[in-house]
Design a protein that fits this description.
The structure holds two protein chains of two kinds. Chain A is mostly beta strands. Chain A is elongated, with a radius of gyration of 24 Å. By secondary structure, chain B is mainly β. Chain B has one helix and ten strands; from the N terminus they run E-E-E-E-E-E-H-E-E-E-E. Chain B has a four-stranded antiparallel β-sheet, with helices on one face. In chain B, a hairpin with a 4-residue loop joins strand 9 and strand 10. The longest helix of chain B is centred in the middle third of the chain and has 14 residues. The chains are: A mainly beta, B mainly beta. At the A-B interface, strand 10, strand 11, helix 1 and strand 16 of A face strand 3 of B.
Chain lengths: ~300, ~140
């Protein structure tokens, strides 16, 4: 039924000759319990400026209204496939709806550390608001495609200013734009796996979360590191690792002999997108959680791509 | 006991990693009694297609029960004991980091002839066959 009618009655002020043409639907992109719907305005806006756009889901008729693309429809059920149409409204009423979008399915939230999720493996939650309230699920890339050895962090003697402990996406894209010496970030930014291209070089505290939940071995942790303002329970808030906290991960893929473990045959230093000084960057040692500094041009470190999705 | 190699499939759809991107994330075929032993890690990372699928299948070697169904999607090949052993040796040797290091094919590891000191950061120096402390600039 056209949205021009409510209960079969033409709305006051509606003028079929002056409403806008239908918008053109774009891509619907699923997030956690939500979908972002992109669209473009109609070339013919009718008799007046478009005041709002409304996106409607099928099934469920979930709606959201706003002034421009994209619009985010909230409250969707994880695991359910939705399509969307968009209507443009001006002073004379709503337009015909656009065509239907592609199908988008909000993912079912991960529950088990190390489970397959989001094109990689679930590695815990982070709180970018630094208050213990989870904002994102952290995902580490599959080691068969998403781990690089010997790729340099950057140019010796150059200060990049990349010092966020949690904003891996921005750190990573900033580094990758600086040129070929920043090969580790470029590797992550160029990674295309699992159908996703939003992989990045993790910030130091993102790597720290991954260490906490995916610790490969049974040996003691370094107790001088691990304090993390961005941690989420059960990882203790802003508290260094204990000798035996964390314990070895229960995910066999990530344990010492597993193919996904944060270890390597040539050492176990995993680089973070975190600058220590003009000559060194920091990373996390996969075997004990240390945050050690290494020269930016070293070719003896691992780099593993991460991505994150909103909670 | 059967010697075999398997590869990754999407955790939900079961589609092979070389056919489509594993949007859910990687998983493995259900093969009765499968015990993972090693992977062809010396050849990683594997390139992906523009769509995000693997350009070749990573191989995960191991054993499974004699009555396992090995016709399922994701099982790559079966081997004789000799073939399996030869492939394992080849992979282990490919991982050798330095000529002086001592290998343990059972665990697929390599260790320096001298234990790494624990009081700082050291890097192996093959010409002197010793650990040299890394002094960062």
């Amino acid at each position: 039924m056209s949205m021009r009618y409510q209960a079969g009655i033409v709305l006051p002020g509606y003028n079929a000759l002056k409403v806008a043409n239908a918008p053109t639907i774009g891509t619907a992109t699923a997030g956690s319990g939500q979908v972002s719907v992109a669209f473009t305005a109609p070339a013919d806006i009718g008799g007046g400026a478009i005041s709002s756009y409304t996106v409607v889901s099928t099934p469920g008729n979930f709606t959201t209204t706003g002034a421009s693309s994209p619009l985010v429809v909230l409250g969707l059920t994880p695991g359910t496939a939705y399509t969307f149409k968009v209507v443009a409204t001006n002073a004379f009423g709503p337009s015909y709806p656009s065509g239907a979008s592609n199908s988008a399915t909000p993912p079912i939230p991960p529950t088990v550390i190390g489970q397959a999720y989001g094109g990689g493996y679930y590695a815990g939650q982070i709180s970018t608001t630094a208050n213990g309230v989870a904002t994102h699920y952290l995902i580490v890339a599959d080691a068969t495609v998403g781990v690089s050895y010997g790729t340099t962090w950057g140019t010796m003697g150059v200060v990049t200013g990349v010092t966020s402990r949690i904003n891996g996406p921005t750190n990573s894209s900033t580094l990758a734009a600086l040129g070929v010496d920043y090969a580790a970030a470029i590797f992550c930014e160029n990674l295309n796996t699992g159908g996703y291209t939003d992989w990045y070089m993790p910030a130091i505290d993102e790597l720290g979360v991954a260490y906490y939940f995916l610790k490969p071995n049974t040996s003691n942790n370094s107790t001088s590191y691990g304090a993390n303002l961005y941690s989420v329970s059960p990882q203790p808030y802003n508290t260094n690792y204990g000798l035996t906290d964390p314990t070895q991960t229960t995910s066999t893929d990530f344990q010492t002999a597993g193919a996904q473990a944060f270890l390597g045959t040539s050492g176990d230093h995993y680089q973070a997108s975190f600058e220590n000084n003009s000559n060194t960057s920091r990373g996390v040692v996969g075997s004990d959680g240390r945050n050690d500094a290494k020269n930016k041009n070293n070719t003896a470190s691992y780099t593993r791509a991460f991505r994150r999705v909103p909670v | 006991m059967i010697y075999l190699s398997i590869t990754q499939i999407d955790a939900v759809t079961g589609v092979l990693c070389t056919a489509e991107p594993m949007r859910t994330g990687p998983s493995y075929p259900q093969v009765k009694g499968f015990v993972f032993v090693w992977a062809d890690q010396s050849n990683w990372p594997i390139a992906t297609t523009p769509e995000g699928a693997h350009t070749r299948a990573p191989l995960f070697f191991g054993t499974c029960d004699d009555d396992a169904d090995i016709s399922v999607s994701g099982v790559v090949a079966t081997y004789t004991a000799e073939e399996y052993s030869s492939l394992k040796t080849t992979e282990h040797q490919a991982r050798k980091p330095y000529s002086s290091w001592i290998g343990n094919e059972e665990t697929m590891t390599w260790n320096a002839p001298i234990a790494r000191p624990t009081d700082g950061f050291y890097q192996w120096d093959e010409p002197t066959t010793s650990w040299i402390e890394v002094i960062n600039a």
